[in-house]
Write a structure and sequence with these properties.
Number of helices: 7
Oligomer: single chain
Number of strands: 19
Helix content: 10-25%
Low-confidence stretches: 19-75, 160-176, 179-221
Distance between the termini: 104 Å
Radius of gyration: 32 Å
């Protein structure tokens, strides 16, 4: 091929390329879309595997009128949004609403450093999995993984707890009139649940219908136990008189196995001699854990001893015995764990005790503190087991109810203050007033405990209701 023909061919290809670039649709779609931002819906479609090409450009089917729009969490965002701008005295990539535009009486939270929707839902609803409800009320936040200090959040109401009842004593507001019965054309006040959606535990009582009556036509009058087997035999207690036991797990059948569990054979350090072990005998496996000190006085309270499972003796030799692990409490059992004779611990029966945040008057009975949270928790919630510094010496017995409360503290100054102009108006955060700072406000009831087992100076109890997290140092009172 000659040099002239090569140049002619190259010029022809270049001309075709220039013509193609001038045609509509080439590169315009990408050019019109910002390179630094992607909508949450587009990200969700991409993650769900939406087909590309013509299928991806087909319009989505609009939801039916009145049908709920399911909330979908966006994919994990590795990089924060760009194009920050200043609103008031803080920087944000969003367009937060005017605080004055929120409904009167609405609960507003100004985001501070360290906040996230998961923790806010945990504090506001006592269930972190309800974070989409907060995001749904604040859709100016385009990416739920990135929220910015200074932006306001509208917090929706907490789901109604049906069991909350006002106390019989004290001055309270008159009861609300009963709601009118829904007619055939009226819509239910309970929002519909999308098919296949998982109903949160806290709101299941308000959404699900009442259970069907028993076949006999009468409800059972027998009280249900407040605790299950694990609450009694897989927890522990604070012992002031703890001493090492004579009997312990001395060896295992499977050498070098990391951790023992149900069904494993173990060897004990006692046998027929001295009548220390009998065939068929059952022992409780215990393990010494941390020393517990009082959160207020710092005095030593005792040693926390955890129940880890049970073993049953299968065969007895002169100085040893072979046993099988019949129960393991989740945590693995190790060679060296101690054994003590298994005892049957009665489970207290549940009795209905109304809880109300208005029940602020002291009972006049013993007061104490939560001194230990079991399972190495830093915070406890409904269903968790804790230890308190009240025991049989204080008249406590299994089944007793303790109210958990916190004292009123002075209000804290806002960590984020604002002062900005919006249109023709100027907004400024409210400063605290101090002329009535000497007033003593009532304490705040936050939950109930039921005593499971008692020692002389400490007791183990289960949280049967709480409206917030319980920590070591929370106050309790016998009801």
């Amino acid at each position: 091929m000659s040099m002239a023909s090569s140049k002619k061919k190259a010029g022809f290809v270049l001309a075709l390329l220039l013509v193609a670039l001038t045609l509509p649709g080439w590169g315009e779609e990408k050019a019109q879309q910002p390179a630094t931002s992607t909508s949450a819906s587009a990200q969700t479609e991409s993650q769900a595997g939406t087909p590309s090409g013509e299928e991806a450009r087909k319009p989505a089917v609009a939801p039916a009128p009145g049908a709920p729009v399911p909330i979908q969490a966006p994919p994990e965002s590795s990089t924060p949004p760009t194009s920050l701008h200043k609103v008031g005295d803080h920087w944000t990539p969003y367009e937060p609403p005017d605080p004055e535009s929120f409904p009167e009486g609405a609960t507003i939270h100004v985001i501070v450093s360290g906040d996230n929707l998961w923790n806010l839902a945990n504090t506001h609803f006592q269930n972190p999995y309800l974070w989409p409800q907060i995001w749904n009320e604040n859709r100016y936040i385009l990416d739920s993984h990135w929220i910015y200090p200074g932006d306001p959040l509208l917090l929706p109401p907490r789901p109604t707890v049906v069991s909350e009842i006002v106390p019989a004593t004290g001055q309270t507001a008159p009861p609300l009139p009963p709601a009118p019965e829904a007619g055939p054309q009226e819509e239910s006040a309970t929002p519909p649940v999308p098919p296949g959606a998982e109903i949160p535990e806290q709101v299941a009582e308000a959404i699900l219908p009442a259970p069907a009556p028993a076949e006999s036509g009468m409800a059972s009058s027998e009280p249900a136990p407040i605790a299950d087997h694990d609450d009694i035999y897989c927890t522990g207690e604070i012992r002031r008189d703890y001493q090492e036991t004579v009997l312990y797990i001395a060896n295992e059948e499977q050498e070098r196995k990391i951790g023992l569990t149900e069904g494993d054979l173990v060897y004990l350090n006692g046998g027929r001699q001295g009548n220390r072990v009998q065939p068929g005998e059952v022992f409780q496996v215990i393990v010494k854990q941390e020393e517990v000190f009082h959160p207020v006085t710092d005095k030593w309270l005792g040693t926390y001893v955890h129940r880890a499972g049970r073993v049953k003796v299968l065969a007895v030799q002169e100085n040893t015995a072979i046993a099988q692990i019949t129960e393991s409490c989740g945590d693995r059992i190790e060679v060296g764990f101690e054994l003590e004779p298994a005892q049957e611990i009665p489970v207290p029966e549940y009795r209905e005790v109304p809880f109300s945040r208005l029940d602020v008057e002291p009972s006049g009975k013993a007061n104490g503190y939560v001194v230990h949270l079991q399972d190495s928790r830093s915070e406890a919630f409904t269903g968790n087991v804790v230890d308190v510094d009240l025991g049989s010496g204080d008249g406590l017995k299994p089944g007793d109810i303790l109210q958990i409360y916190v004292g009123s503290t002075p209000p804290a100054e806002r960590r984020v203050k604002y002062r900005y102009k919006w249109g023709e108006r100027r907004y400024e955060s409210q400063d605290l007033r101090s002329e009535d700072s000497d007033l003593l406000y009532p304490r705040k009831p936050v939950g109930h405990l039921m005593v499971l087992t008692t020692g002389e100076k400490t007791s183990t109890a289960k949280i049967i209701h709480t409206v917030r997290e319980i920590e070591v140092g929370s106050k309790v009172e016998v009801r």
